[in-house]
Design goal:
single chain; alpha/beta; D-Maltodextrin-Binding Protein, domain 2; 10 helices
């Protein structure tokens, strides 16, 4: 019943989106809790989405667990309770499907992202181009290879190895001073001045404006597709699907794009 009420409220939200969440407040007969495991890069956008849904649905509490997608996947496999899983790559979602934690037919690619280079506001290393990442003495921080953004970074470096110079990747990786467990840790190291540069998602650059940036051209960049699905173990299946539906709605997509994510064409459900 709780899930049905939330779905009804969300339908009203979509129809009255211009009026905002407060126009669709409905009191549920009892409290309802939804637990969402989501990639760290989704922190700001999902916090706003969660706040909107809670404001529109008194009695609803949405709890988020943000982290590296690979870490979240492991936590779920080890029994952590969750209703929704939103990953920054397909690999971790495929593992969820293979383990029967998620129904493959219910997976939605709901948003996409690209990579960007960030530096401290004072840019102490004087970096001006992507080629500068390979200069001796530059302190570079990346996400670890098993983290989605870390793997995407290596793919970008492979492309730059062709477009810039054959030795770019090896020289840049020789400058790495630390590998982090999620993209927000990369951002934090750069903010604290512990690195001259880091490679993160474009959405992270939007979330932290007081940083210098170097764009990565489309030809050398990566399109990171984010899949999301309700977990088969969830006792709140309707609520989980309602959260996903909101993220796919015009209002949800507008929030995600405000935080620097890019749209993606998602397939219609059967």
């Amino acid at each position: 019943m709780k899930g049905f009420l939330l779905l009804t409220v969300l339908l009203g939200t979509l129809l009255l989106g211009a009026c905002g969440p407060s126009a669709t407040v409905m009191t549920a007969p009892e409290p309802a809790t939804l637990t969402v495991f989501a990639a760290a890069s989704l922190t700001d956008a999902f916090n706003e989405i969660g706040a909107n849904l809670e404001a529109a649905n008194p009695g609803l509490e949405i709890t988020f667990n943000f982290g590296g997608s690979q870490t979240l996947r492991t936590q779920i496999e080890e029994g952590a309770p969750a209703d929704v899983f939103a990953s920054a790559n397909q690999k971790e979602m495929d593992a969820m499907v293979a383990g029967s934690f998620v129904n493959a037919d219910h997976v939605e690619k709901f948003i996409s992202n690209r990579l960007i280079v960030i530096m401290p506001a004072d840019n102490p290393a004087g970096l001006e181009s992507l080629a500068d990442l390979a200069k001796p003495g530059v302190k570079l921080v990346l996400a670890a290879q098993e983290v989605p953004v870390g793997n995407y970074t290596l793919q970008v470096f492979d492309k730059l190895n062709v477009s810039l110079e054959a030795g770019f990747k090896d020289k840049a990786l020789a400058n790495v001073v630390s590998y982090e467990n999620d993209v927000r840790q990369v951002v934090a190291k750069v903010q604290l001045g512990e690195a001259d540069a880091g490679v993160v998602y474009g959405s992270d650059a939007v979330a932290v404006l007081a940083l210098e940036k170097i764009d990565i051209p489309v030809a050398e960049n990566i399109v990171a597709l984010y899949p999301m699905a309700a977990l088969e173990q969830s006792a709140n299946g309707e609520l989980a699907q309602a959260f996903i539906d909101y993220a796919l709605s015009d209002e949800g997509q507008a929030i995600l794009q405000k935080w620097g994510f890019l749209p993606v064409e998602h397939r219609a459900r059967p």
